[in-house]
């Protein structure tokens, strides 16, 4: 109990605005930490309310009410394959026609055959495996891939993700790549990526390759969109600003959030620092050049990207392109739903422990899914996965009735 009291005390201390995201948000709301701003945001800050699309507000709702202002940025998820152009040219890879995992088989094998034994066309680290591998399943903000709903499933059926035929097929493919030396043998234990990967997968938006090229000293990366854009509750809840239930200045706090989201000068200052010290304007307020690396604040946590200057070197229409992705985004079948795990803490912790034991081997292709999935699933069931799935299904049915 002591820990819980300490936790509650933390929220009773005076604060006005607090950053939060999907792992914590619903727990904090359940605790009564945040103000219900449903009416206030419409009456006090209509410009802020109108600026953020309905779908994005929808992703922050809890019990039909708003308890936070979502950061409107790359709020939908878009997944890309990223190729080092050097190999695309050398092996004549038709990158525009690579949409699925099986489509990658040929190019990866060609690269392996041509480059030889010590070359791994698909280098991986343990934590990531193949980035976005479980994207087709909405994790209900649980952050636990083995339970989910297929994003396009109109019936909203909660499933055991590892047992789905499409997931098994793709895991078998990863395993064959691992056995054939397409994936590095130390993938399950490797923690840091090497610079300059020949191929990787990433959640991104247009223009992202500019910073990768600089960081990796690669001449040119080609990005190919192959999944999304899609809105899920998790993608929208990646960055939220909530107001304390105990704040004496709720309306003012909202007005501040409105200003940051609508005033480019203030937006740039928060993201980049002091004009003339940390950054200079190159083209009106549209393009900036950073002149220091001492400004530590995370731009993604503050406010929208759509009134933010572009950093020199990135495409000048970078944010317009991101906005277009959002406009084109489909919605997950369970958008707006977040699983309430307050009654499931033990099961979730026990299942997470089982998954943690096996996941590195599985998501890097090191273990044989045909042998491992029955074993992992049996352990997950013993740990309480069925109870989580049943509760999730009941909550979903209630939420969408």
If you had to describe this structure to a student in words, what would you say it looks like?
- It is a single chain.
- This protein is of the alpha+beta class and about 400 residues long.
- About 40% of the residues lie in helices and about 15% in strands.
- It has a four-stranded mixed β-sheet.
- Strand 7 and strand 8 form a beta hairpin.
- Helix 11 crosses helix 12 (about 265-270).
- It is globular and about 65 Å long.
Helices and strands in order:
Blueprint: H1 2-12, E1 17-20, H2 22-30, H3 38-44, H4 46-51, H5 54-58, E2 61-62, E3 65-66, E4 69-70, E5 77-84, H6 85-90, H7 105-115, E6 137-138, E7 147-150, E8 159-160, H8 165-179, E9 199-203, H9 208-216, E10 221-231, H10 233-236, E11 240-243, H11 250-262, H12 264-272, E12 279-283, E13 287-290, E14 310-311, H13 318-328, E15 330-331, H14 345-363, H15 369-383, H16 385-399
Parallel strand pairs: 10-15, 13-14
Antiparallel strand pairs: 1-11, 2-3, 4-11, 5-9, 5-10, 6-7, 7-8, 12-13
Helix pairs in contact: 11-12, 14-15
Give the structure's gist in a few sentences:
The protein has about 400 residues and is an alpha+beta fold. It contains 16 helices and 15 strands.
